[in-house]
């Protein structure tokens, strides 16, 4: 069954709802530029609502002090969504011993070539590149050309992200063979505010395809 990450939750009821509705992972965004930003104290209390889902801390070019604080909160998974190099990802893996995900922005076939360099990443998140001049690296609700993945062999476990929603996720899974998917904007009616029904619809569409 396709695994699902719901990213950018800020509300305890929605966290509980996503977890009880079958989300495998729930992402918390520690990037201040994001409309889904959560503070560390807020995350500490949201973590108590994740139930059987696994929490993922989304960090952008984090310094060691931030990493240590986030690990101290109890996050088992760190998603790196900035310009982290393969060596920096390996450093973070060695420093924390945690599960490390690396996001890769894709707009053309060449963008997929460098994924092989991230040998220390436990999982790759293959996402759309942000638009030019954007103030943040993800969560734009934009898809890339999924056909770029049709002849691609993933070097390690991965998720598909970028512009997914309840109406297109089944097609995306069929076309790319993604074993797991990630969504943020596609389950919001207002930027940064998740919608219960859209979360349920997305989980149902992804899990039944
Ligand atoms: O979601 C954000 O606001 C965000 C901010 C800064 C860095 C990364 C961010 N999101 C990363 C994610 O994992 C999103 O779920 C992914 O980019 C897909 O987003 P969307 O296209 O909106 O579904």
Q: Which parts are unreliable, with pLDDT below 50 for 5 consecutive residues or more?
A: none
Radius of gyration: 16 Å
CATH topology: TIM Barrel
Fourth-tier CATH superfamily name: Aldolase class I
Strand order of the biggest β-sheet: 7-6-5-4-3-2-1-8
**End-to-end distance:** 8 Å
CATH class term: Alpha Beta
Catalytic activity: N-(5-phospho-beta-D-ribosyl)anthranilate = 1-(2-carboxyphenylamino)-1-deoxy-D-ribulose 5-phosphate
GO biological process, one term: L-tryptophan biosynthetic process
Pathway: Amino-acid biosynthesis; L-tryptophan biosynthesis; L-tryptophan from chorismate: step 3/5
EC number: 5.3.1.24
Can you give me a brief rundown of this structure?
Helices cover 27% and strands 22% of the residues.
SSE diagram, text form:
Blueprint lengths: L2 E5 L4 H9 L4 E5 L10 H7 L7 E6 L4 H10 L3 E4 L5 H11 L2 E8 L16 E6 L29 E3 L8 H8 L3 E4 L4 E3 L2 E2 L1 H12 L2
The structure holds the ligand O=C(O)c1ccccc1NCC(=O)[C@H](O)[C@H](O)COP(=O)(O)O.
The ligand O=C(O)c1ccccc1NCC(=O)[C@H](O)[C@H](O)COP(=O)(O)O binds next to strand 2 and strand 8.
